[in-house]
Amino acid sequence: MENTKNKLTYKLGSDIEINRLGYGAMQLTGSGVFGEVKDRENAKKVLLAAVESGVNFIDTAEAYGPQFNESLIAEALYPYKKDLIIATKGGFRRPGPGKWVVDGDPKFIKENIEGSLKRLKTDTIDLWQLHRIDPKVPVEETLAPVAEAVKAGKIRYVGLSEVSIAQIEKASKVLPIVSVQNLYNLGDRQWDEVVDFTARNGMAFIPWFPLASGPEKLADKISNIARNHDATVAQIALAWLLKRSGNILLIPGTSSLKHLQENLKAADIDLTDEEFTSLSRH
Q1: Angle, CA of 158, 67 and 255, to the nearest 5°
Q2: pTM of the predicted structure, to 2 decimals
Q3: Inside any domain, residue 222
Q4: How many C-beta atoms lie closer than 10 Å to residue 18's C-beta?
Q5: Within a domain: residue 263?
Q6: Residue 77 belongs to what domain range?
Q7: Does residue 224 belong to any structural domain of this protein?
Q8: Catalytic residue among 64, 80, 157, 184
Q9: Which residues touch 156 (CB under 8 Å, ≥6 apart)?
């Protein structure tokens, strides 16, 4: 397990410099990640505040809303700052609140890409991620329209989500993969091997649900370390991820301006090697 000093930027692909503390926009939707966000003006303020605070990596998806989230980002932030990277995803149908149906049909994927370009008001999606691999459709077929969009200049880079090393290797035969977004946090480390694999292979690793701080037995330990740094438990959970591996990009989401600023301050926390090791043991 790599234990890295906090270097706070990461180069995505060969040329996009990203601040490792980004923002995940999923919470800026209705209940069950469905429908319009309750307070649109507040949501726009949070997005603007994130960018003003130095965030230059925002993660969204066609499925958030669905579609409402991408349109909201464009409404709040377009015309985009020069160095702002907006990553989106495709491959989920949303029949209702809390319902997610994987669909890797190439026609649906193509619709997702074209729709995202329109809603985000952009000619090129910097990072397009396959939200899930559909077990019913060969990944080569699912990624065919993605490869076409890359050739046409509509997508710059491609990532995957919730995948194993074998799946990353298979997809990489179709087109270059620059990032992997899997469930990962201090308390759920099932993808440790994928974190290390992506680090070795020059890919970013983007943990979703990064703020789960760990099992109850870790609570006291985290609280003590948080007190030592005059920090919150959430900040320590994020600081641990930043130190875990230099290719980790964080996208904690919140609809609260206060929590946004708290999350971003996690970049200032430099855990000691002893603290990191202690948190890593459970």
Answers
A1: 95
A2: 0.95
A3: no
A4: 23
A5: no
A6: 9-213+242-256
A7: no
A8: 64
A9: 13, 16, 124, 125, 126, 127, 150
Q: Which residues of 174-203 are buried (b: 16+ CB within 10 A; e: fewer)?
A: bbebbbbbbebbbbeeebeebbbbbbeeeb
| Within a domain: 220 | no
Burial class from Cβ neighbours inside 10 Å (0-12, 13-18, 19+) for residue 95 reads exposed
- pLDDT digits 0-9 by tens, 49-97: 999 999 999 999 999 999 999 999 999 999 999 999 999 999 999 999 9
Question: The domain spanning residue 179 has which CATH number?
Answer: 3.20.20.100
pLDDT in tens, 124-142: 999 999 999 999 999 999 9
Domain count, the chain: 1
**Is 64 marked active-site?**
yes
